[in-house]
Write a structure and sequence with these properties.
Blueprint (H helix, E strand, L loop, with lengths): L9 H19 L19 H9 L7 H22 L1 H22 L8 H11 L11 H17 L8 H18 L3
Length: 184
């Protein structure tokens, strides 16, 4: 009996491949590609690439540690979410979370934004709803929300290169999707 590979989570695997391809292409282009995958606070609303970056920023990563950290969680949690909600709904959730985090970053923060951390936090909060019935709030959701969002709030007062706001917004999106889809 031979084993064969199965493309078991098409959205998540494709997402991971695109993130990796963008990172490798940017390395080959010596950092010239990553600006296309970054949302900047001074956005040019007439530039189609600038508008696209509201979503494409989730594919850009600052360094290998950033990429691998995000992909670890995405590949761990994403297939569970894709199986529960389906590929089309997962694409919608990823796009919505990317757009919301990008837009809020432009409106309220004076920093650039890149990376899939908002998507990671969406998945982290959303996974706590995987076996929930309608009308229930899972204790795991409450604990995960307190731990992850609480940690991000505490870290947000530190001076660093991390967009804790995107993490928190991603977590809020995941919570919204979880409550909206609970019991389905």
């Amino acid at each position: 009996m031979g084993l064969k590979l199965k493309w078991n989570s098409p959205v998540i695997l494709t997402f991971a491949l695109v993130c990796t391809a963008v990172f490798v292409a940017d390395m080959l282009m010596m950092g010239k590609l990553m600006p296309v995958f970054t949302v900047y606070p001074s956005m040019d609303w007439s530039n189609p690439f600038s508008l696209a970056s509201l979503v494409t920023h989730v594919f850009g990563h600052a360094n290998l540690e950033h990429l691998l950290g995000n992909l670890t969680f995405i590949l761990l949690l994403g297939p569970i979410i894709e199986e529960k909600y389906g590929s089309k709904r997962l694409i919608y959730m990823i796009l919505a979370t990317a757009l919301i985090t990008g837009f809020i970053n432009i409106m309220f923060f004076n920093t650039g934004l890149m990376g899939a951390s908002g998507i990671v936090f969406m998945l982290i909060l959303l996974v706590s709803f995987t076996n929930v019935s309608s009308g229930e709030i899972p204790v795991t959701f409450i604990l995960v929300a307190l731990l992850f969002i609480g940690k991000e709030l505490l870290q947000s007062v530190e001076i660093n290169q991390i967009a804790e706001s995107a993490h928190i917004i991603g977590g809020i999106c995941g919570s919204f999707f979880g409550f909206k889809g609970a019991g389905r």
